[in-house]
Structure formats: structure tokens, C-alpha cells
Write a structure and sequence with these properties.
It is built from twelve helices and eleven strands. With 332 residues, it is an alpha/beta fold. It has two domains: 6-84 and 227-329, 3-Layer(aba) Sandwich (D-Maltodextrin-Binding Protein, domain 2), CATH 3.40.190.10; 86-223, Periplasmic binding protein-like II (D-Maltodextrin-Binding Protein, domain 2).
């Protein structure tokens, strides 16, 4: 580390687009990163509860909720490390009599954490695309207050929504096996300090959407939204002292993503060389990046998640994007 470098601790999950930062192949200018690889479930709990790292990935929903309640420790950087069509991961028990989304009404559905972004997107899409409101489902939440994002941000069940706490001696997987649940919005078996399901449920469950990829394409074609789950935050006290951190970190994350993209393009080179593809394809790829960073490219997605967090009763007001992200990044 040189005399002019800042040393920052950073927590990231194992993601190919951030791996160049973790491995040191890409470094932000003027900053030396000390990386820790952590499962997102555990990382967010540790940050929200203990503020352990200077920079980290962060649950978009928990960031929005904490800001709405006056939390000021964290400032967002518009880097989005995870996107997915989260509703396509809903699973149902084969014996539960659930064939289409409307059949979820009145059913018992498990969720690792009610306020997690994955669950908010799934519920929002069930409501807006299929007419199934969260109040029409009976929810069972696995994470207990001592090790949950909601426990660190003051979660209470929204008015009119039935949310039961699963006892620490059980979990979503065991309840699915015993027939005590009809399905789950998200089933996590990755080993970490927060989640505790381990049961193999492949023989008793199936996807709600028989062809998840086709449903994802349908949703994107209709809405143009590729849902964001994780963003990046930096400690506010550091940003106030060193405002340049925000853009230097953003540029490094972009460079890391481009490093991975270039690896893929090296294979496409031979298609261009032989004339099987022409430069119009390259222009299309560059101009339509579904994983784009920055507020401008993702404004519609970000506005949608702030809407869903508010309308699902998880914060008393709708949080503006200007409250979430560093001012210097708003025009990116």
C-alpha cells in the first residue's frame, strides 16, 4: 500500500463479475481493498447489525427500508451484483394442488425472510402480473430475529398479512417434507450463519412455472424489467471524508465486469473474423447490456423496487433514489 492509498475492507459474494476485484486483477484508483467472500444472507445481516465492512454488497430492499427509518450509515453505489427473474424460482409441493399462480391463494408458503428483495420481487410480480395479493397467502418465515435482516431493521409484519415465525428447531425444508407448507418463494440450502434448511426436496416439489426461462422472457418482453436484488454500499462516514471514493469504486466495478465480458467476446471474435457475425451484433450487445450498472440504465427497475417495498407495507413512505445513491453517481 502506498502512502496515498486508502485501505478499505470489502465484503462480496462469489460472483464472476466481481471476482476480478476479489482476486486483485482490478483495483480502484487510490484504494487498496481487503476482500472477504461471504454468502449474501450472512453478509447483509452482519452489515446491518454490526457494520463490519467499509464496502459491501447489500440487499436493495433492506437498504431502502433502513433509509426510510432514518438509518444513515450507508450510501449506495449503483453497482448491481445480482439480477434474476425471482418469481420463476417459486416452488410448490407436487401434492398441494397448485397449477397456476392464482392457486397460491390461501396456501402456506415459506420464505427465508419476508423483507428480502427476492421475496419482494416475487410477491410484487404475483400481485401485478397475476392478481395474487400478499394478504391472500399465509407466510412462514425461517429466519429468526437474532439472525435476520429484519431483526436488524425493525421488521414487523405488514398490516393484514399473516407472517408466522418458523421455530428455530425447524425450517422450510423440513416443513415441506412433512407437508406443513405448500410451497416456497425461495429455497436456500447454501451453508451460512443465517439460513438453516438442508433437506433435499427435489422429489416432492416442482417449479410453479413449468418453464422458468420462458416465463422470464415473457416478463421481460412485457415490462422491460430485469429485477435487481443486490447493490453496493459504502460507509457514509468514509464518503463524507473522501467523496472521491464513490466514483473510484464505481469505475472499478465497471472495469471488473468488462474484464469478464471481454473474455466472452474473445470467443465471438472468430465469428466476426469468418463473417458469420458482423459489427452490428457487437453494437447491439454494447447498447443493450441487461447487467448494466448506473442509475440511468436501471432507473425503471429501481423505481419499481422502491414502489414494491412501500406498497407491501415494509416502509411508511416511498424512498427516492436520491436518498439511496451517492450524489456523484446519480447521472451515471
Amino acid at each position: 500500500m502506498t502512502a496515498c492509498e486508502l485501505e478499505l475492507s470489502i465484503a462480496l459474494s462469489d460472483n464472476e463479475r466481481t471476482r476480478p476485484l476479489i482476486e486483485g486483477r482490478v483495483a480502484p484508483q487510490g484504494i487498496r481493498l481487503v476482500p472477504t467472500m461471504v454468502h449474501p444472507s450472512e453478509m447483509f445481516w452482519r452489515q446491518l447489525r454490526f457494520s463490519e465492512f467499509d464496502v459491501s454488497e447489500m440487499s436493495m430492499s433492506s437498504l431502502i427500508i433502513s433509509i426510510s427509518r432514518g438509518e444513515t450509515r450507508w450510501v449506495g453505489i449503483p453497482v448491481f451484483t445480482m439480477r434474476k427473474f425471482f418469481h420463476t424460482s417459486i416452488i410448490v409441493r407436487n401434492a398441494a394442488g397448485i397449477a397456476v399462480p392464482s392457486d397460491l391463494r390461501g396456501k402456506r408458503i415459506g420464505v427465508p425472510e419476508y423483507q428480502q428483495t427476492w421475496a419482494i420481487w416475487a410477491r410484487g410480480i404475483l400481485q401485478h402480473e397475476f392478481g395474487v395479493h400478499p394478504r391472500e397467502i399465509e407466510w412462514f418465515m425461517e429466519r429468526n430475529p437474532d439472525k435476520s435482516h429484519g431483526g436488524a431493521t425493525g421488521f414487523t409484519a405488514p398490516q393484514g398479512v399473516r407472517v408466522h415465525q418458523i421455530a428455530p428447531t425447524s425450517n422450510i425444508g423440513e416443513m415441506l417434507v412433512r407437508g406443513e407448507l405448500d410451497g416456497a418463494l425461495h429455497y436456500l440450502v447454501d451453508k451460512n450463519l443465517v439460513d438453516r434448511s438442508t433437506a433435499d426436496i427435489s422429489g416432492i416439489t416442482r417449479n410453479l412455472f413449468p418453464d422458468p426461462a420462458a416465463e422470464g422472457r415473457r416478463y421481460f418482453a412485457k415490462t422491460g424489467l430485469f429485477p435487481i436484488n443486490h447493490g453496493v454500499v459504502v460507509r457514509r462516514s468514509l464518503l463524507e471524508k473522501h467523496p472521491w471514493i464513490a466514483l473510484n469504486l464505481f469505475s472499478a466495478f465497471v472495469a471488473a465486469k468488462e474484464t469478464i465480458a471481454q473474455c466472452g467476446n474473445s470467443y465471438l471474435h472468430w465469428y466476426f473474423e469468418t463473417g458469420l457475425l458482423d459489427e452490428s451484433v457487437e453494437r447491439t450487445l454494447k447498447g443493450n447490456d441487461p447487467l448494466a450498472y448506473g442509475v440511468k440504465a436501471s432507473r425503471a427497475v429501481l423505481e419499481t423496487i422502491t414502489q414494491y417495498v412501500h406498497e407491501q407495507g415494509l416502509c411508511a413512505r416511498r424512498v427516492a433514489l436520491e436518498e439511496i445513491f451517492a450524489p456523484s453517481t446519480m447521472d451515471l
